[in-house]
Write a structure and sequence with these properties.
Layout (H helix, E strand, L loop, with lengths): L1 H8 L4 H10 L4 H12 L33 E4 L2 E9 L4 E5 L4 H11 L4 E2 L2 E2 L6 E2 L7 E4 L6 H14 L10 E5 L5 E4 L10 H5 L5 E8 L5 E2 L2 E3 L4 E3 L6 E5 L11 E3 L2 E3 L2 E9 L5
Antiparallel strand pairs: 1-2, 2-3, 3-14, 4-7, 5-6, 7-8, 8-17, 9-15, 10-14, 10-17, 11-16, 12-13, 12-15
The chain binds pyridine-2,4-dicarboxylic acid (PD2) and zinc ion.
């Protein structure tokens, strides 16, 4: 409703809202109910017909924390989560205490025996390849694979207002000394020939959540070169960022700087447009 009110106040028509909601998976009857409820909201510009015929561009429904209330702390499935940093472009939030120390330790223990050299998407075919730009080891949990995974996914869904099934399985990565992930974009480049095949499963990536499972001795910061931001990994904290468009204007270029001492463990959640099966 908050999103609908914002769009409406900005002059977006009800028809455009309905299209966006259906696109995001709303049932027609539920969308109609919400649109009817919106009519009762006095700030609704659309109903006062003060907008131009062309109207402003529609802001699509996207994963994001609700930062309108309760700052600097948010609560999601029993966990009180702090907000340390907020950036407008890209939409980015650094959270504290998204995971407890016990959850971090448990995740590492469950992932450790299943680690293998990380791969990247091969742009030509949409397949996967070993890439010198990414020298971590990693593994994927399936969604809801254990009580721990289900609890963390539920928390992420509540925090980011996004259904858990519209996300890839949780990935855990380990970076040893010297390992890094050179700056890249997480969305799939629409211009690459392999992209349509990748998008068939769940659509485009919309946002990334990187959770820090340990505090590295030195190095391993998550860097955002376009906005001059370095996030220092600290156990339990996380960085969330969205990419409104799958292009460099999203300002979502980011990388994992080399670990200079010790190791770095993270868990990543990528949020998709549609159900990821
Ligand atoms: O480890 C990181 O900080 C990092 C940096 C960039 C992780 C990812 N990308 C990723 O998993 O996409
Ligand atoms: Zn990335």
């Amino acid at each position: 409703m908050r999103w609908m009110r914002e769009q409406s106040v900005a002059g977006v028509s009800k028809d455009s809202l309905r299209v966006a909601m259906m696109d995001a998976g709303w049932q027609a009857s539920a969308a109609q109910q919400a649109l009817t409820a919106l009519s009762g909201y006095s700030g609704s510009n659309e109903l006062s017909a003060s907008h131009t015929r062309a109207g402003p561009a529609l802001q699509r429904y996207r994963p994001a924390p609700d930062l309108s209330t309760g700052l600097p702390r948010l609560v999601a499935n029993g966990q009180t989560i702090g907000v340390l940093i907020q950036v407008a472009m890209p939409p980015l939030v650094v959270f504290s205490e998204l995971l407890t120390a016990a959850e971090c330790t448990e995740l590492i223990a469950a992932a450790r025996p299943r680690l293998a050299r990380s791969l990247t998407v091969e742009a030509q075919t949409g397949g996967e390849e070993v890439n010198a730009d990414r020298t971590s080891e990693g593994m994927f949990f399936s969604r809801g694979e254990s009580a721990l995974i289900a609890r963390i996914e539920d928390r992420i869904g509540t925090l980011l207002n996004w259904p858990v099934e519209r996300g890839e399985g949780l990935q855990v990565l380990r970076y040893g000394p010297g390992a890094e992930y050179k700056p890249h974009y997480d969305y799939f480049d629409p211009a690459e020939p392999g992209t349509p095949a990748v998008l068939r499963r769940g659509g485009q990536r919309l946002a990334t959540l990187i959770m820090y499972l340990n505090t590295p001795e030195a190095g391993g910061t998550t860097v955002f070169p376009q906005i001059g931001l370095d996030v220092v990994p600290q156990q339990g904290n996380a960085v969330f960022f969205g990419y409104a468009q799958p292009n460099p204007q999203s300002h979502s270029l980011h990388g994992g700087a080399p670990v200079t001492c010790g190791e770095k463990w993270i868990a990543t959640k990528w949020l998709r447009e549609r159900k990821f099966e």
